[in-house]
Specification:
The chain is of the alpha+beta class. The protein has 2 domains: 232 residues, MetI-like fold, CATH 1.10.3720.10; 82 residues, 2-Layer Sandwich (Gyrase A, domain 2). The protein is built from 14 helices and 6 strands. It has a 4-stranded antiparallel sheet with strand order 2-3-5-4, covered by helices on one side. Strands 1-6 form a two-stranded antiparallel ribbon. β2 and β3 form a beta hairpin. α3 packs across α6 and α13 runs antiparallel to α14. The longest helix has 37 residues. It is elongated and about 105 Å long. The two termini are 35 Å apart. InterPro entries: BP-dependent_transpt_permease (IPR050366), cNMP-bd_dom (IPR000595), MetI-like (IPR000515), MetI-like_sf (IPR035906), OppC_N (IPR025966). This is Oligopeptide transport system permease protein OppC. It is a multi-pass membrane protein. Belongs to the binding-protein-dependent transport system permease family. OppBC subfamily.
Length: 381
């Protein structure tokens, strides 16, 4: 008898411990390399959008009038072959002539002449151009019609080029990413709160209440989305909050249907019947039993909803119904780039690259979460 009990205790100790569903999901997700790569990519894009604009050296609204539509390059601007034309343009604005010009070690030495005495305040055009620093007068003729000045050449880099008005495209793409990701996450959160509550309540009530609530969804599905946005623009000024309201007002419909289907499948289970027998209210059953058991499909649907919201916002901004200046988003930048496609194709390629990478990463992560949260898959070893 003692040996039998001892053997049973040893077998129980040697038996592997049952792991929770969340632990199994984490283990499956960590073994899914594409999903992990997608997660790392999303984190990198988010961090770049948050901290990147402070590291590029350019303010997003800063305009460089002498560096319009510059191609993407690692080289610093102005380049040696463009310094002389830039100086001549600035001298023309100052109504002066360039008699002599020499550049050495990033410093330019100029001899400026004019039929009339030169006003030294006109030299402020040099630092105002953003290409050169403040000018220092080395020599001045007795009649004041000739000046020898020295100024340093600025070193400006535009890794993704500049747009049609001379703004750094990399900085604008990173700032636009903040808006696009904010809209995607905020609208998805609203869709989760409204859709989960509506769908769970509809499925739990059942009967006539469920039928009426589903017909309301059908009516909302029938409303054309773009027409709905145009109606909002008639009464309200287009801004970021209007885009959030418009997108969130329609994206919760699919979430409600998903949660309702899951609730209908769960409410006939024994644990739900036991909760009803114990006298728990409908709200308590939803919060304690129904919603926690639908988290798997909800998380997957939310992950796949974020890229759809971002794409929808980009579509609205492309039509001019979304985010308005001075704010910007990837959709706004893509719309601007499409208008300058022939002369500056990088204006379309840069924001489209950020958008495509983010959408692919979100979809791959959503597929990985769907596999990780699927209870029908075998337990990983």
């Amino acid at each position: 008898m003692f040996h039998v009990e001892q053997r049973g205790a040893m077998m129980a100790a040697a038996a592997p411990r049952a792991r929770s569903l969340s632990a199994l999901a984490r283990q499956r997700l960590t073994r899914n390399r594409p999903a992990l790569a997608a997660l790392v990519t999303l984190v990198a894009v988010a961090l770049a959008c948050l901290a990147g604009p402070f590291l590029t050296g350019h303010a997003p609204e800063r305009i460089y009038p002498d560096l319009v539509r510059m191609k993407p390059s690692l080289a610093a601007h102005p380049q040696p072959d463009t310094v002389r034309p830039a100086i001549e343009r600035i001298a023309f604005r100052m109504r002066l002539a360039v008699e002599d010009y020499a550049i050495s070690d990033g410093t330019v030495r100029l001899t400026l002449a004019s039929p009339k005495p030169i006003n030294e305040r006109s030299l402020s055009y040099l630092p105002r151009s953003d290409l050169f620093g403040p000018a220092r007068i080395l020599e001045r003729s007795a009649d004041g019609r000739r000046l020898v000045v020295e100024t340093r050449v600025q070193r400006l880099r535009f890794l993704l080029g500049t747009d049609v008005v001379g703004r750094d495209l990399l900085t604008r793409c990173l700032v636009a990413g903040r808006i696009s990701l904010l809209i995607g996450l905020t609208a998805t959160l609203v869709a989760l709160l409204v859709g989960v509550g509506y769908g769970a309540l509809s499925g739990m009530l059942g009967g006539v209440s469920d039928a009426i609530m589903m017909r309301v969804l059908d009516v909302l599905y029938a409303l054309p989305f773009v027409f709905f946005v145009i109606v909002l623009l008639v009464f309200f000024r287009a801004n970021l909050w209007l885009v959030l309201v418009a997108v969130a007002a329609v994206e919760w419909l699919d979430m409600a249907r998903i949660v309702r289907t899951q609730t209908l499948a769960l409410k006939g289970r024994d644990f739900v019947r036991a909760a009803q027998a114990l006298g728990l209210t409908t709200g308590a059953i939803l919060i304690r039993h129904i919603v926690p058991n639908t988290l798997g499909p909800i998380v997957v649907a939310a992950t796949l909803l974020v890229p759809r919201v971002i794409l929808l916002e980009s579509f609205l901004s492309f039509l001019g119904l979304g985010v308005q200046e001075p704010a910007t988003s990837w959709g706004v930048l893509i719309a601007e780039g499409s208008r300058a496609l022939e002369s500056a194709p990088w204006m379309l390629g840069a924001p489209a690259g950020f958008l495509v990478v983010s959408l692919i990463a979100l979809n791959v992560l959503g597929d990985g979460l769907a596999d990780a949260l699927d209870p029908r898959l075998s337990e990983p070893r």
